[in-house]
Each structure stands twice: as structure tokens, then as C-alpha cells.
């Protein structure tokens, strides 16, 4: 059996939409964050392995820069159909990835 973890820390830079003509303001950036991920595997037989991965174990709420879609394809209903001017996107919540590997 193997067990591992990953705990990335990020301190996002100032928002890209911030004007470059002034000094960076800490309020122009997203808060830093750390997420905790786990992964494990168990060799059942020589050719069969069970595994599982859990991302964001503590379901930490944080934001990252960028969108995962074409911004012009969807109206922004939360802001009166105005353009998406802020490139912050909510990060993924807790996610589970169980599986089985079989080799022949």
C-alpha cells in the first residue's frame, strides 16, 4: 500500500486587469491559499491495483485567475449582462477519483 500527499501553496500576483501605471495594491490580488490533496494505491494482485485520489481534502474555498470558457459565449447574469471584467474564477471543490488498474 502506498500513501502520499500534496499541499500546494499559492500567492497570486496582482490581478492582470490592474492598471500598470500605479504601484500594486494588496487589495488588487486574490488571497493566498493552500490546498491539501491525498492519493493512495493498493496492489491487490500482481496485475490488479486499486487507487484513489482526493483533491482539496478540506474543501477549501479559493479563487484562481482565468476563465475556463469563452467569455463572449455567455451573458453575465450576475452583473446585468455586463462583460466579465474580473478574471477570478472559483477553484474546484473537493473531488474524488477512485479507480482500478488492471494489466495483462
Automatic annotation (TrEMBL):
It is found in: Cell outer membrane. Residues 1-32 are annotated as: Disordered. Keywords: Cell outer membrane, Membrane, Receptor, Transmembrane, Transmembrane beta strand, Transport. InterPro entries: Beta-barrel_TonB_sf, TonB-dep_rcpt-like. It is a multi-pass membrane protein. GO terms for cellular component: cell outer membrane. Belongs to the TonB-dependent receptor family. This is TonB-dependent receptor. The lineage of its organism: Bacteria, Pseudomonadati, Pseudomonadota, Alphaproteobacteria, Hyphomicrobiales.
